Amino acid sequence: MMIAISACLAGEAVRYDGSHKLYAPLKALQNSGMAVPVCPEILGGLPVPRAPAEITGGEGCDVWAGTARVTGSDGEDVTGAFKQGALRALEHLQQRNITHVILKANSPSCGSGVIYSGAFDGTLKSGNGVATALFEANGITVWHEDHPELPALIEQLLQNGKSA
User: Fold this and answer.
1) How far apart are CA 103 and CA 99, in angstroms?
2) In whole angstroms, what is the distance from residue 132 CA to residue 126 CA?
3) pLDDT at 164 over 70
4) pTM of the model
5) The domain containing residue 41 runs over which residues?
6) pLDDT tens-digit profile of 67-90?
């Protein structure tokens, strides 16, 4: 089974501040050919570095419904870039028949179940990011890197890869 992972979790310096959030077990999956990195924000044309962004007025599904926006801490509305990037990422996943993704927790693109509040004060709220909402609406299973079952899944994938 091929999965996709957030590019920042694979060690790529694509985060808003130019950093990464390497999660070594996911990088091992990529190195074994069982995972491909994806970054909806980069696919949407956002630069590195860039102002941090949060969803205001709701969560990812509300962005798609047109009732919420993605705004940078500098006040710039980056909703269009987030939506374009999510659509391009979905296209990449569908072309590769990928049905499971492991994404960066709390992100306005990739957050799964919890995202930043939109107030740029470090608080969290329930909800999904823009890409996560689109992926789930299209039948793709989304986990974040803190999912309690992730270590077992990674171990299973690596073992299956060795026996293949």
Assistant:
1) 13
2) 13
3) no
4) 0.95
5) 3-163
6) 999 999 999 999 999 999 999 999
Sort strands 100-103 and 69-72 into parallel, antiparallel or unpaired: unpaired
| Structure tokens belonging to residue 107 | 């992100």
For the segment 9-57, what is each residue's pLDDT rounded down to a tens digit? 999 999 999 999 999 999 999 999 999 999 999 999 999 999 999 999 9
Residues 12 and 89: their CA atoms lie apart, in Å, by 16
Closest CA to 110 of 2, 14, 1: 14
Amino acid symbol at 54: E
* Percent of the chain topping pLDDT 70: 98
Q: Which residue has the tokens 């990011």?
A: 129
The secondary structure of the chain, three-state, reads: CCEEEEHHHHCCCCCCCCCCCCCHHHHHHHHCCCEEEECHHHHCCCCCCCCCEEEECCCHHHHHHCCCEEEECCCCECHHHHHHHHHHHHHHHHHCCCCEEEECCECCCCCCCEEECCCCCCCEEECCCHHHHHHHHCCCEEEECCCCCHHHHHHHHHHHHHHC
**Total number of domains constituting the chain:** 1
Give the separation between CA 46 and CA 152, rounded to whole angstroms: 34
Q: Write out pLDDT tens, residues 97-115.
A: 999 999 999 999 999 999 9
